[in-house]
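Methods — Computational structure assignment.
A single polypeptide chain was analysed. Its primary sequence is given first, followed by the predicted tertiary structure written as structure tokens.
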Amino acid sequence: MAIPITIENLLIKNVVEWARIEFKEGWNPQTILKTISAFANDIDNWGGGYIVIGAEEENGKLVRPIKGIDPNSVDKIQKELLRYCKFLKPVYLPQTEPVCFDGKMLLLVWCPGGYERPYACPKDPDSKSGEKIYYIRKLSSTIEATDLDVKELMSLAHNIPFDDRINPKAEMKDLKYPIIRNYLQNVGSSLLDDIDKFDIKQLAGNLRIADGSSEYYKPLNVGILFFYDSPEIFFPYSQIEVVNIPDPTGNGMEERIFRGPIDEQLRNALNYIKNNVIAEKVFKISGQAEAIRVKNYSYEAIEEFLSNAIYHKSYQIHEPVTVRIEADQIEITSIPGPDRSISDTDINKYQMRTRRYRNRRIGDFLKELHLVEGRNTGIPTAIKATKANGSPLPKLLTDEERSFFSVIVPIHEAFLGKEFNQDADKENGIVGKVKRRSKKQIKECILKLLTTENLSANGLYKRMGYSGNASKSFRKGIEELIAEGKIHYESDKLRDANNVLVKG
């Protein structure tokens, strides 16, 4: 049975987090069986992992050139692997595939999280009746589970994520062959090589989007969400609603509803925002060949926030993901909110780390399509993109019950109808601000300039990028700083515009 990810995507493109990959120089049932059981236990709901037999690692990284394994030994290893996996309690059978990489033969072992976890592994795999131990993965290591870990594994046995459950109302015919084929093309799956030999049941089995006994083989919820053209029939309001309100009165309001497979509706909604909302301004700087470019919103940040909303919403709650675009902000809301283990302080600091994922299989598919970042990196990526654009930081909102989660992304100040003065602000170390400064900003700028040199009021005015008649706010700022004793004129000629101001 083929594995729905290429060895190149796994080892070079880093589609899967490195903590989910184990390298084994050769076939060693003593260690490999323990790692298989640990991936199957999937205590952190990562979606299991991959073992690459024939590849050496150093500090968790692939060592090249690849040593590989003897091609004549592949069949023997797979037979022994099948025999040893039957010693697991309950029995767990991973999927294997011989693959070539760098001209060498490897055996790729895919160990998805098991439905019947926890799995106990013989401490000595050659002793079928010997002591059995629970193993788990922590970072990139396979370790024995503690008593507390075992209790957690027991509780997880009764908590299969919703996206990984069988959908009793769906039939295999609901999984659409063209949509599956398109997905396999997008991720470059090796399944494409023999796709014409597979029927829909075989394809679904390879992708693990269906499960059950032979007489009750049904699509999983994740299969319907990605590979059925109208998932809202099974999951009402599994859609993205975008409302564009350019005027507070509602004049010119536009509403778009994006339906279909969830990766498709995500792409379509993002394309709408990119083509109809994202705008750019270019500012020339005197003495500098390269212009300054800023966007009203960082598209990369919006992409991360909306993708995370699709990833983390509950499809058991019949509410859409909403995007409300106003004149000065974009608000993205999904239901429910983040896990209760994430404190309000962590949310305010943009440190939303969790071990529990609501939709681990949805996350796996979105990661393979490069629509979401890896583990706990989506928010930091969005914040980084926001800062790079010089935009105000977003606001993350939820309530005590964690019933919703909203991200409010403010527009860049250059798009608020104010004159952008990047030239003067850059000179004064205030990059990304606007000419219409507040009185507080004016006073701070005056003090900063007077720290390094003494300037007249006229000199300050020009250095701060002003021209024409004197700004009332500027004059008021100087008067207040003098009254506060923070600056003073060098002489008593107050009416002389060339009278030098001195700090302190």
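Note: The chain has four domains: 1-159, 160-229, 240-415, 437-503.
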